[in-house]
Structure formats: C-alpha cells, structure tokens
Amino acid sequence: ANTGPFCVGTTINLMCPSATSYTWSGPGGFTSNLQNPTIANATMTMSGFYTIIVSVGSCTTMATTTVSINALPTPVSSNNSPVCVGQSINFTGSGGTTYTWTGPSSFNSNTQSPTIGVSSLSNSGNYTLSVTDANGCMNFVNSSVTVNPLPTVTATSPSSVICGAPFQQTITITSGGASTYTWNTSATGNTISVSPSVTTTYSVTGTDANGCVNTASVNITVSACTGMQQFGVLSSEFVVYPNPNDGDFTISVTGLNKTPAVEIYNTIGKLVYKDVLTAEKNTFITNLAAGIYFINIIENGKVIATQKLICK
Questions:
Q1: Distance between CA 275 and CA 261 in Å, rounded?
Q2: CB neighbourhood size of 58 (10 A)
Q3: Distance CA 26, CA 254 (A)
Q4: Is residue 123 classed as helix, strand or coil in its secondary structure?
Q5: pTM of whole model > 0.70?
Q6: Using only C-alpha atoms, what is the Rg of the chain?
Q7: Closest Cα to residue 70, out of 4, 158, 140, 165?
C-alpha cells in the first residue's frame, strides 16, 4: 500500500506487512530493500506501479500498489500597485480552491481577492499568496506592492491681510511641493495673483510625479484699511497694509516721486520707529509690541500724511 495520492514535492510513503525480506521496484529505476521505504521530493515521473517481493522462510510472494502524483496548482497573484497613501490596495488571486494571503504589517486574509481599504507607507513590501487545489496540493507566489507618500503641498502669501476697495490690493499666492497645481479658482500653475473684495480662502491641489495628490490652502482677509488719508498736495494715495498687523507692514504710495521719512509714534507721543520710504523699500519690519500707533509721512520737515496703525 501507499499513503497517497501525493503532491509534487512531498514524500512518497510505501508500506507492506512484516516479512523476512523485502524487494521493492518501481518507476524511474526505483529499488529498495526496506519494509516501508520513502521517496522524498516526489515528481510526476514517480507515478505508476510499485512492486514488492516478500519472503517468509522459503515462501515468497509479491504485490503491487499504484502511486498517484498530483501536479501543484499554479497560483496567479496581481495588485493595483503602485498606489498613493490613503488609496485602496486591491489584490486578485486565482489558481486554487482556497487562498491565504500574508504580507507586511501582519496582513493576513483568506479571501481570494482581498482589499486594504486605506493604505499607508507600512503596507509597502512583498505579499505571498498560498493556494490549495481540490487535491489538497499547495503552491505559492509572491507579488510586490509600492505605496508612495503624498506630496507635501504648501500655499503661502506675503501677507494674510490686504486692503479692499477703494484701495484694492493684489497679492500673489505661491504653492510648492508638487509637480502640477490646480487652484479652486480654476487657475493652474504654482502662483496666482488675486484681488479679493471679501475675505476668501484659496486652495490648491498639487500632484507629484507619482500621481499622488494633496492640498493646501491660505486665507486672505480683506481689510477696510480704515484711517486712510490722501496726500492733498500731491494727490497721492497713502495705504498701509495689512492693518491690523503683527508689526510688519507695507506702505503703498501712488504718485510720490520723493523719499519722505516714515515716523511711528505711540499713543503718548513717543517716537518708536523711524525709516525712509523709497520705491525700493516700502516694507517695514518694526518688531513693535501690540498696541495702537500713528504713522507719519514727513517731507521737508512737515507731516504730509498720517494713519493709525494697529499691531496685535
């Protein structure tokens, strides 16, 4: 007898009752004088009739047993890799009657075609599919999954507060961290120039070279820029923005061809900051503490314009 049928790669076990001597023979030139011999690493060519001749004293007899070797199943494994963090990983398996998947982060599934719903970087790596067929034979196949990180998309602007009408300001928002960009204004490219009339949030969707997508946004607050005064003599507009601010601000003057002094006083009349306004320098970093101040534009020793400044 034998303990088969067997699968390719397993061990063939042959058996017979106790006797005095044993002579086995079989396919591929197999011979053995053991009572219960074994044949390791079975192949398809080992299928067939095995004959044993046994002796007890002077008596001799013989018998045959048929060994069946079944081929291993041919598992097929595929997935939708590469994917981006947060996307699902979809596995497809075939070639058996039962399935066992194993992989990174202790992944295990007995579903033929399982899914990892929300992927992370830890899901990258090799996955093994083991299948068993109707004969109980098992085989496996490996497949690889790549999970790409999302781009770190940024959206920045030189100021979060601008002046609205009638001193409408334009500001440029710049994005980074990706390859292509689409804004919620339908604009494309990594920069947009905007002139909102009301407080508005601008968001950008960035796509990297792997096709992974992330978003960023920036909120632009529109200020009435109260306290504005005009240069009556020069017919120029004097705009300070943002206002309120954190001590850093820009002065915009239209029609001014000279370089007046900029002086900032606190509420008790103490001079706390002084500089010169030029076409090249109109942004000031004052490091002023929170409070209320007054900006004076001085030309030829005279105050030609003034405005309240609020630092927060």
A1: 6
A2: 6
A3: 106
A4: helix
A5: no
A6: 42
A7: 4
- Give the residue with greater pLDDT, 157 vs 126: 126
Beta bridge pairs of residue 169: none
Place of tokens 């013989």: 62
Q: What sign has the CA pseudo-torsion 178, 182, 185, 188? A: positive
Q: What digits encode the pLDDT tens for the residues 231-281?
A: 343 334 678 888 889 989 888 776 666 788 888 888 777 889 999 888 777
> What is the structure's pLDDT at 228?
42
Give the closest residue to 163 by CA, choosing from 194, 200, 197, 201: 197
User: What is the residue whose two structure tokens read 């920069």?
Assistant: 191
Q: Are 124 and 146 in contact (CB under 8 A)?
A: yes
Q: Which two tokens stand for residue 119?
A: 């992927």
Could you give the angle at the alpha carbon of 54 between the alpha carbons of 34 and 31, nearest 5°? 45
Given the structure tokens 């098992």, which residue do they identify?
138
Residue 205: closest CA among 190, 193, 221, 220: 190
Q: How far apart are CA 60 and CA 37, in angstroms?
A: 19
Phi, psi of 135, rounded to the nearest 5 degrees? -85, 0
- Biggest CA pair distance of the chain: 139
Answer for the pair 304, 233: CB distance below 8 angstroms, yes or no: yes
Q: Which two tokens stand for residue 83?
A: 């994917």
Q: Distance (Å, rounded) from C-alpha 197 to C-alpha 144?
A: 52
Q: Give just the sign of the alpha carbon dihedral 198, 201, 207, 213.
A: negative
Sign of the CA dihedral running 26, 32, 33, 36: negative
* CA distance linking residue 195 with residue 204, whole number of Å: 17
| Residue 58 identity | S
For the stretch 25-34, contacts whose Cβ atoms lie closer than 8 Å and that sit 24 or more positions apart, written own/partner, are: 25/50, 25/51, 26/50, 26/51, 26/67
Which stretch of DSSP H or E encloses residue 174? Answer: strand 171-176
